[in-house]
Design a protein that fits this description.
With 105 residues, the chain is of the alpha+beta class. It has a single domain, classed as YggU-like (Conserved Hypothetical Protein Mth637, Chain: A), CATH 3.30.1200.10. 24% of the residues lie in helices and 31% in strands. It has 2 helices and 6 strands. Strands 1, 2, 3, 4, 5 and 6 form a 6-stranded mixed sheet that branches. β3 and β4 form a beta hairpin. The protein is globular.
């Protein structure tokens, strides 16, 4: 992770206590994975194309796997047709998100 970047800058906690993660997506990539930071968002790459919601679904699956939650616990809140997206992740404590992101980059 870059100097001065805190994993907690990539997410907020909504009024229900759920984590809302900011994500920058690169669809149509050679490999799927979490690759680092893009401003104040987590940058991810997915092999799925940006059509018919395929990339959004791939990102949701990647986030579920990355954070160890069910796919149904990851919900796209905004940015369906944009590279900048916000996903709500339920069943995950903010400290767990910070720790996992710290391990990734």
């Amino acid at each position: 992770m870059g100097v001065g970047i805190s994993p907690s800058s990539f997410f907020d906690v909504d009024s229900d206590g759920h984590v809302v993660l900011s994500v920058h997506v690169q669809p149509g990539a050679k490999r799927t994975g979490v690759v680092g930071a893009h401003g104040e968002a987590v940058k991810v790459r997915v092999t799925a194309p940006p059509e018919d919601g395929k990339a959004n679904q791939a990102v949701a699956e990647l986030l579920a796997t990355t954070f160890g939650v069910r796919k149904g616990d990851v919900e796209l809140l905004s940015g369906a047709s944009s590279r900048q997206k916000r996903f709500r992740i339920t069943g995950l404590a903010p400290d767990d998100v910070t720790a996992r992101l710290g391990q990734l980059f």
